[in-house]
Amino acid sequence: MILAAGPSWNPIIDLQQMWSFPFMVNAFRAGTIVAVLAGVMGWFMVLRRQSFAGHTLSLIGFPGAAGAVLIGVSASYGYFAFCLAGALVIAALPRAGPGGYSEESAVTGTVQAFALACGFLLVALYKGFLNGINSLLFGNFLGISAGQVSLLGIVAALSLAALAVIGRPLAFASIDPDVATARNVPVRALSVAFLVLLGAATAEASQITGTLLVFALLVMPAATAQALTARPGRALALTATIGLAVTWLGLSVAYYTPFPVGFFVTSFAFAGFVAAQAVRHTRPRWRAASTETSPMPIGIAR
Amino acid sequence: MTAHSLDSDVDRQSSNTVAPRKEDQRPVASVITLRDAAVERGGRRLWSGLDLTVAAGEFVAVLGPNGVGKSTLVQVILGALPLIEGEVRVLGGAAGRANERIGYLPQRRSFDPSLRVRGRDIVRLGLDGHQWGFPLPAWWPWPGATARRAATARVEEVIDLVGAGGYADRPVGELSGGEQQRLLIAQALAPAPDLLLLDEPLDSLDLPNQGAVAALIATISRAQRVAVIMVAHDVNPILSHLDTVVYLAPGGSKIGSPRDVITGPTLTQLFGTPIEVLTASDGGMVVIGHPARCEDHAGQQP
User: Which residue from A65, A52, A59, A76 is spatially nearest to A117, judged by alpha carbons?
Assistant: First the structure.
């Protein structure tokens, strides 16, 4: 961005300056919505070890966005349509066993490559748009309209509301599917529901970071938070906070430099992840007495 | 003490078994009744003609080589697999109808080392993980703060009961197999079940831990009148605690007290390989000839 001479280094003045442009206001609104939704879904995705599914969904979204532009509608609709449809397809695939998609990795890898190729074709067909391939793959925040922000907001609100309803049994089913099944938790249905929510979150994140950098908001904040705390509540709050922080920082820095926002958001998220790993591994490790030496429990309570 | 509600479909007889806790004068109602039961898996009949009655507070071991349907028996009791002949009643109703009153510990190796969730959270899932909604922090004032405090206290109680207080706040993936197993037993105990179904709970443990966990389960079973069905590979660590033994073998099944069933002639006949039972100087028994060893051949049979 070469709109401004440079930052004043006073955050309030800089934000005021950025927010004097409607497109920056839209960018911050969209970034805020997406960071929270992607962070929270990402925490569950990391917990369920379904990062591969998330990556596949983002690549499926690419031809959707390119096709939407080709037929003259907003790329948002293309992302949402393809990511949600892709989520249903992945949900319909037979799962190898609890927790893993490893069995389908060859199939999914094939589909990923094909999705990318289709997207590339669609971009090429829309000749005047070939420059736009960068923003589809690596993110762009210049063209976000007020209507797009509303759409992001509505989808995010619906997704988070759904997650608030299924959150606890989803965590149970993710951590302990066998016991959850025995307790009549609908593990299979929750898995489908989660993939659809993940599709929505991926479609949203793609619109800020682009197809190839969705993990900046989907995986990195959650992985950073999980390195810092094992308490689910704190980890979720921390995930959303980290996602917000890297998005706002990335948008601000991108505004004052000629370089793309996707790079900055990803780099800040990566820096946070590295710092969290450093903290985790330098923190003094306390090992409590292990079971081998702990006394047999004698108190019986009910 | 906990949230499990008695559904109207549970008949009078069984509602006695959940009456608060748990004096010895309460009527002896059978927790499990299997009558002439037979089951098939993959078109192959695993066992048939099984008659088993388990009373409250009874400690039952299900023994036998791999592939004879020990875990299948657990699935039948959970209502996850129908019988092809005979009848099963669990806690006064059809199998699967009262699973919230069953603590289930599935067969497993261990949690993924990267799972960044506290042991305490794993235990908590056993208490209310099946309920819709999103867990609120214990300090949150509204709604249901009292219930949340009670739940927190209950989790603390069962963690103390299994002697896991020293490591319940550490990420469960970092714990040893024995520590994880104790937390999982606490998880199964959290909703104050009337029946514990434990599928090879000693399998991943070293010898001292096998003895300690077996003694712990026996103590809980006696003190709280919880019926325990434990699938086991090796009878020796639990032999002194058992009330009843269910031996499943390719050559048929045998049910009775350890003294009646665990005899050289019976086991030799069941397994078709010479097995000796020695009585130790303290009156304990030791099974030699190791039934587990002949499973490699027995398990192969189609």
Answer: A59
Long-range contacts of A114-123 (CB under 8 A, 24+ apart): A115/A59, A115/A60, A115/A62, A115/A63, A116/A59, A116/A62, A116/A63, A118/A63, A118/A66, A119/A62, A119/A63, A119/A65, A119/A66, A119/A67, A119/A211, A120/A66, A121/A63, A122/A63, A122/A66, A122/A67, A122/A69, A122/A70, A123/A66, A123/A69
CB pair distance less than 8 Å for A291 and B209: yes
Q: Give the count of Cβ contacts less than 8 A between chain A and B.
A: 136
Nearest beta carbon to residue B224 from set A172, A299, A302: A302
> A154 in contact with B at a CB cutoff of 8 Å?
no
**B-interface mutation test, from A48, A166, A179, A283, most B Cβ less than 10 A away:** A179
Whole-angstrom Cα Rg for chain B = 20
- Separation in Å, CA of A245 to nearest CA in chain B: 22
Intra-chain end-to-end CA distance of chain B, in Å: 47
Q: How far does A165 lie from chain B, in Å, by closest CA?
A: 4
- CA A260 to chain B, closest CA, distance in angstroms equals 33
Q: Please tell me the total count of domains within chain B.
A: 1
pLDDT values of chain B reduced to their tens digit, one per residue, 302 residues: 333 433 333 333 333 333 344 444 444 568 999 999 999 988 888 898 999 999 999 999 999 888 889 999 999 999 999 999 999 999 988 998 888 899 999 987 678 888 999 999 999 999 999 999 988 877 788 778 888 889 999 999 999 988 899 999 999 999 988 899 899 999 999 999 999 999 999 887 888 888 888 999 999 999 889 999 999 988 888 988 999 999 998 778 889 998 888 888 888 887 778 888 887 776 667 777 754 544 444 433 33
| Cα end-to-end span (Å), chain A | 65
Find the residue in B nearest to A300 (Cα). Answer: B161
**Contact state of A172 with B216 under an 8 Å Cβ cutoff:** no
Range of the domain at B74: 12-298
| Positive/negative CA dihedral, A179, A183, A187, A193 | negative
Is B22 exposed, middle or buried (CB count within 10 Å of its CB: 0-12, 13-18, 19+)? middle
- In angstroms, the CA A31 to CA A17 distance is 18
Q: Using the beta-carbon criterion (under 8 Å), do B80 and A180 form an inter-chain contact?
A: no
CATH code where residue B197 lies: 3.40.50.300
B212 to chain A, minimum CA–CA distance in Å? 7
In chain A the domains, ranked by start, together with CATH numbers, are: 11-282 (1.10.3470.10)
What pTM was estimated for this model as a whole? Answer: 0.84
Pairing of strands B276-279, B195-199: unpaired
